[in-house]
Each structure stands twice: as structure tokens, then as C-alpha cells.
Amino acid sequence: MRWVRWAATALGWAAVLAAAVGVLAHHLGSTITVLVVLASFAPFLMVCGVVGLVALACARRWVGTAVAAVVVVAAAWTQLPLYLGDRAQGGDPELTVMQANILFGQGDPEALVAQVRSRRVDVLTVNELTDGAIPRLGAAGLDEELPYRYLRPMEWGGGGTGIWSRHPITEETEHMGFVLNMVSVRVHEPEQRPFVAVAAHPLPPWPRPQTTTWSEEMGQVRDILQDLRGRGEPVIMGADLNATYDHAQFRALIGDGYSDAAEQSGAGVLRTYPADRWWPPVLGIDHILVTGAVAVNAEAVDLPGSDHRGVVAEIDLREPDDHSGSD
Q1: What is the distance between the alpha carbons of residues 125 and 184, in angstroms, rounded to a whole number?
Q2: So where does this one cross the membrane (predicted)?
Q3: Using CB atoms within 10 A of its CB, is residue 110 exposed (0-12), middle (13-18) or buried (19+)?
Q4: What is the pTM of this model?
Q5: Mind listing the pLDDT tens digit for each residue in 149-200?
Q6: In the chain, which ranges are E strands?
Q7: DSSP letter assigned to residue 156
């Protein structure tokens, strides 16, 4: 019937428009709050393109079908790198890194330490670390597993940040100029190259209209990472960046020598937030970034008591010429 065809056409064009907005939001580096939020949900908007393609094809709107096909291809092109992976230089992992946001220090310390213990984590980066959380984590056994630490907690709120390590650390540094703390250390792992571990937590761009500050802090993180990379040693950062792969500001971090562990390992989107709802997490805002090393595996893990899931990555630290399979 004619009305069915018109309804399918209307649905199809609306869905294609939504997908096109998702593709556009992926590419824009805007600090306009609505566009930053749209970029967060860009993959969900892009999926609408498939609905539009089917609807327009069923309605026999061939021009619309062609437009929808172009939008679907453009959308797929933005997401494919997350699933293809780039581990050609990787061998067996020697290092396991975990990133955890513990919700104002309220995350279950026993559960966090159980993850560290079962996965044999070597470096743990923690966001939203409070003064009160430190003794609870110690009582749960974290200091026994990871005896070296550099912590910059806060009495309350989400600004505290810390790094625990299985191996000795030096060059403990607090990087100034951030609303929420950013720290780094140099880790000395026996029989491996020393590397720099970083923990960061840029200010979230919402719910308050603070997208400009968030974008500026992402730029500051990028500058610090580039300075650290200039030392010629591997750098590994665990962070709640309050940014997804579809934010241009995030992709700028991995545009000059850094890789996202999830993308490099082909793990796809590791959705970590929000983790305290009845529905599964929808946004991948917690990340592990590497340079001078290769992330072989990456996955999201549960952190009871927190509104985030954690991220764990297995990393090959060896020099590129030492990787298995290389000449």
C-alpha cells in the first residue's frame, strides 16, 4: 500500500540522517556540548544507517538506497580499525596493566585485589582515589601484590589518582595544571626495559558544560605523552579519559606514536561506563595507551561497587627487533 511505502521512506531517511550525524560527530573535534555527547553515542547513531538502508530498499527508493549505502560504508570505515587490530610486531606479553576508576573510593577493594591477583597485574592505575580507600585497599592485600606505589589521593571527590607497581619505581611525578590529578612513574622491571607508567583523568565534558576544559586537558595530556615518548622508552598510560574512540580529541592522543590497547589488539570497543545500571555499559571511556610496546590482548573487567568497568591489557615490552617473527 502507498502509505506503507511512504512510512518506510520517512523512516529510512530519518535513520540515514541519524547515521550521517553519527559519522559527522565522529570526525568533528568540536567543544560544543551537544556535539561532544553525540560523538559519545556515534556508533549507535551509525547503526541506524542499516535500518535506513533496509527501509529505503523495501520502499524501492533507489536514490535513497544508494545514499544510505554510502553512509553505511562511511560509518563502517570509522569503526573497522577497532576490530582489525595491529599486532604484527607483538609476541608473548611480559606485562599486564590494569586501569580502574573506583567511584570516589567506593569500589569494592576485595574485588579489585582479586582481579589484580588472578590476572597477575604488574601495574595498576587508579582514578577517583580517596584517602579512605588507601587503607582499605591495603587491608585487602593490594600492597602485598603491588608493593611499590605513587599516590596522589584526595580526601573526597573524584580527583585522586595513583599508580601501584609490582616492580620498583623512580621519578615519581605529579603533572600540574589539571583539575583531577595526573601522575607518572618510571618502572624498573627485571630483565626488561624500564618504562614509564602514567595515570590520568581529564575533567569530564558533561553533565556540566565544561567541554572546553575537557578538550584543553586532553590537549595537555597529549603534550605530556609526547614529551615522555621523546625519552625513547616505552610509555603506558591507564586513564579514565572521559572520551570514546569516536571523539577526535581522543584519536589525537593516538595519532602520533601511541596506540589504544583495545584497537591494537583488535578487541573492539571496551564499554566501561556506566557499569552500575540495570543495562550494560554503553560507553568506552576507560583506556590503556601504549607506545614503544605492543598490546597483545585487552578486555574489560568487572569492578563491583564502581560505576566503571576496569580495563586490563597484556603488553609485549620487548624491542621491535626482538619480537617473535621479526627478522
Answers
A1: 10
A2: 35-56, 63-84
A3: middle
A4: 0.92
A5: 999 999 988 999 999 999 999 999 999 999 999 999 999 988 788 999 999 9
A6: 95-101, 123-127, 148-152, 161-165, 169-175, 182-187, 195-200, 235-240, 259-260, 286-291, 294-301, 310-316
A7: S
